[in-house]
Design goal:
By secondary structure, the protein is α/β, with parallel strands linked by helices. It is built from eleven helices and 17 strands. The protein is 26% helix and 22% strand. It has a ten-stranded mixed β-sheet with strand order 1-13-16-15-14-17-12-11-10-2.
Length: 512
């Protein structure tokens, strides 16, 4: 049995905890944001979610391009922003702010568009001012519909995985492809800020996954250097870059990325620091696990097994201690974004969200070097503790064995917290994020007994159930996380809690 002792030092304040689970990403906003759902439904289903990323929101093919006649190349300004306006209106109605990731270049701005793997144009505009006018007109239309102050509170991103040649390949020459993307970025940012002002948040999304070098058309360093050293190609002002995001994927639960999450984030951080961008915000705009044990794609890029609780806890620990702003998720429930049963990922997000705004206090030594020193396959047991300054201390504890989806070995945990309580017994509330709060194993047993198959491209290991014949009602009883009050012992100014947790799981503890 593994053993892990946590000695909390309330005197050592580290940082305020921000909302690492604030963001969800949507492949095509037309699927969920054209009127579906009751008012506030996303927020009710996912109270931790603040904003939704509309990926490829402004074009790249005839279906996504915001024109009355997308394939009429003779007319460049027959804008029709109504589909995106409709989606933004529904996002607000459902309880979240839009986060608009501008898309690939509309077909009519490129004489010879080339459609890539993701079904969008991979080329640059022939005339950059055509594209500037398009984005500027969009921002003006959004202001007219929602008001300047509201739209200024939204976020913007330029492209998805901008150096991935399956998304963008304006030139076979890396330096020229990079130059063209930098120019697209400049003109996009100029259009947004000319309409909305400099206070609006704008950044860009790189792939950054080094093990798939064959997909890289140019190095992100070229873009970072441009933002740090050059001037905006449209207006000659310093290049505005508020954040830079990346993708992080394990291939399968048994096929890990060659770097940890923090190590991938560090590729951005060390390059930004190299060019003097010492305070650049870093975030993750998509990822987790690409495919299931059946080698089919996971629809939410997560698995339904207990393993996901540990992985999510480990990502949260790395995000907190390596200062990564958020990790955008695809969905959290058995029915996707708004419907169905809570998954373990949902429980993890909700319980971390309860700690947001609290002040982190020291438990593990977790400086930058120690976080980066963890190898991708290392077993780890870690914790995050925080105080609200009013007598409550919250602790997240987890153990995680990467690559071993059915890791069962328990960990004996001992938490020591300085206290002013008198000697004797007390209690702490514990919320175990493990199979006691997981509908998925019950569904898997019934699915296999009934011989049901998950047809098509999606994996049966997804907690967002894509199997025909799934009825969530019988499994609702298994999806609840029920708190337990465990006894603690107080002696000589220290409160001690001991418990055992199963492998690949997490626990949230509240001391009062």
């Amino acid at each position: 049995m593994n053993e892990y002792t946590i000695q909390i030092d309330p005197k050592k304040k580290v940082r305020a905890l921000n909302n690492k689970v604030s963001t969800i990403c949507i492949w095509d906003y037309r699927e969920s944001f054209f009127g579906r759902g009751e008012d506030g439904q996303i927020k009710k289903a996912n109270p931790f979610v603040e904003r939704v990323q509309f990926m490829t929101a402004t074009g790249g093919n005839a279906e996504r391009d915001l024109f009355r006649e997308p394939e009429n190349f003779a007319v460049k300004d027959d804008y029709d922003f109504s589909p995106l306006i409709r989606a933004c209106k529904n996002a607000l109605r459902l309880g979240v702010k839009p986060f608009l990731k501008t898309g690939s270049i509309p077909l009519k701005f490129t004489k010879e568009p080339q459609i890539g793997v993701f079904g969008v144009n991979m080329h640059a505009p022939d005339v950059m001012d055509d594209y500037y006018n398009y984005i500027y007109a969009l921002c003006e239309a959004l202001k007219a519909e929602f008001g300047t102050e509201e739209v200024q509170s939204w976020s913007w991103g330029v492209f998805t995985e901008f150096e991935n040649k399956e998304w963008f390949k304006a030139s076979p020459e890396p330096a020229e492809a990079g130059r063209l993307f930098c120019e697209i970025y400049d003109y996009t940012v100029a259009a947004i800020t000319d309409s909305l002002g400099d206070g609006v948040t704008v950044g860009a999304h790189a792939m950054m996954m080094r093990e798939i070098l064959k997909l890289i058309v140019f190095e992100p360093e070229q873009f970072i250097r441009h933002c740090a050293q050059d001037r905006n190609a449209k207006n000659g002002r310093p290049v505005k870059l508020d954040y830079m995001s990346f993708s992080f994927y394990d291939g399968r639960p048994y096929l890990m990325c060659s770097m940890t999450f923090a190590q991938v984030a560090n590729l951005i951080r060390k390059t930004a620091r190299k060019y003097g961008l010492n305070d650049l915000r870093i975030a993750c705009d998509e990822g987790r696990i690409n495919s299931g044990m059946d080698n089919k794609e996971l629809s939410p890029r997560t698995v339904g097994f207990r393993y996901q609780a540990a992985m999510d806890a480990d990502l949260l620990w790395q995000m907190v201690n390596f200062d990564v702003d958020y990790f955008a998720a695809w969905s959290y429930r058995s029915g996707g974004l708004m419907d169905g049963l809570k998954s373990l990922g949902s429980h993890m997000a909700e319980n971390y969200y309860r700690m947001v705004g609290m002040e982190q206090i020291e438990t593990d030594p977790a400086d930058e070097a120690s976080v980066l020193g963890i190898a991708p396959l290392d077993f780890r047991a870690h914790s995050i503790a925080a105080t609200d300054g009013k007598g409550k201390t919250a602790v997240m504890v987890y153990n995680y064995q990467p690559q071993n989806i059915f890791f069962e070995e328990p960990t004996k945990v001992r938490i020591e917290l300085p206290t002013k309580k008198p000697d004797g017994e007390s209690t702490a509330e514990c919320r175990f994020v493990d199979d006691r709060a997981n509908f998925f194993p019950h569904w898997c047993r019934d699915r296999d007994a009934r011989g049901l198959e998950t047809k098509g491209r999606w994996s049966e290991d997804s907690p967002e159930i894509m199997t025909e014949g799934f009825d969530p009602a019988p499994y609702e009883q298994y999806s609840h996380l029920i708190p337990q009050n465990l006894k603690t012992e107080v002696r000589n100014g220290v409160e001690v809690l001991e418990f055992t947790m199963i492998g690949n799981s997490a626990v949230f503890v509240d001391f009062r």
